[in-house]
Write a structure and sequence with these properties.
With about 160 residues, the protein is of the alpha/beta class. The chain has helices spanning about 5-10, 45-50, 75-85, 100-105; strands at about 15-20, 25, 30-40, 60-65, 70-75, 90-95, 110-115, 125, 130-135, 135-140, 145, 150-155. Strands 1, 2, 3, 4, 5, 6, 7, 8, 11 and 12 form a ten-stranded mixed beta sheet that branches. Belongs to the class II aldolase/RraA-like family. InterPro entries: RraA (IPR010203), RraA/RraA-like (IPR005493), RraA/RraA-like_sf (IPR036704). Its cofactor is a divalent metal cation; Mg(2+).
Length: about 160
């Protein structure tokens, strides 16, 4: 990333949405950016696994897990797949597991927290749909910028 989120906001102001939720950094890359792809799922990570196994082309996958911390939506094997397939990062409105291993990967990962419990694998959910959490809209193709200070999204 060439410019910090604070500097981007100073330059572009209300052209950017600032996510007020306090996500934690888990990936080995704390600053990342890219076009948004999305998944909406609740305690089921089958779509996360299949999506991150496809070419990411520098995109950021935003996952709305409804803020549930009951199960992890991503672990180290899925995160390794994301790295191998060229994803820039993953933002999870929910939990991850294998946080130490994920911290060693060249991938941006922001999530609400951790839980060692696996999620369901039924494939329930939706891919590439508009999401909203924290008062911010996440639309497919809009650009997301993230660093240690937070997350900005194009309007």
């Amino acid at each position: 990333m060439t410019q910090a989120t604070a500097d981007l906001y100073d330059e572009f102001g209300d052209d950017l949405q600032s996510v007020p939720m306090q996500f934690r950094d888990f990936g080995g890359r704390t600053a990342f950016q890219g076009p948004i792809r999305t998944i909406r799922c609740l305690e089921d990570n089958a779509l996360v696994k299949s999506t991150l196994a496809t070419p990411g082309d520098g995109a950021v996958l935003v996952i709305d897990g409804s803020g549930s911390l009951n199960t992890a939506l991503m672990g180290d094997m899925i995160a390794e797949s994301a790295v191998a397939n060229g994803w820039a990062g993953v933002v999870i409105h929910g939990a991850i597991r294998d946080s130490v291993a994920i911290g060693g990967l060249d991938l941006g990962v922001k999530a609400l927290g951790t839980n060692p419990r696996k999620s369901a694998k039924l494939g329930a959910g939706e891919v590439d749909v508009d999401l909203e959490f924290g008062g911010v809209a996440f639309a497919v193709g809009k650009r997301l910028y993230a660093d240690e200070d937070g997350i900005l999204v194009e309007r």
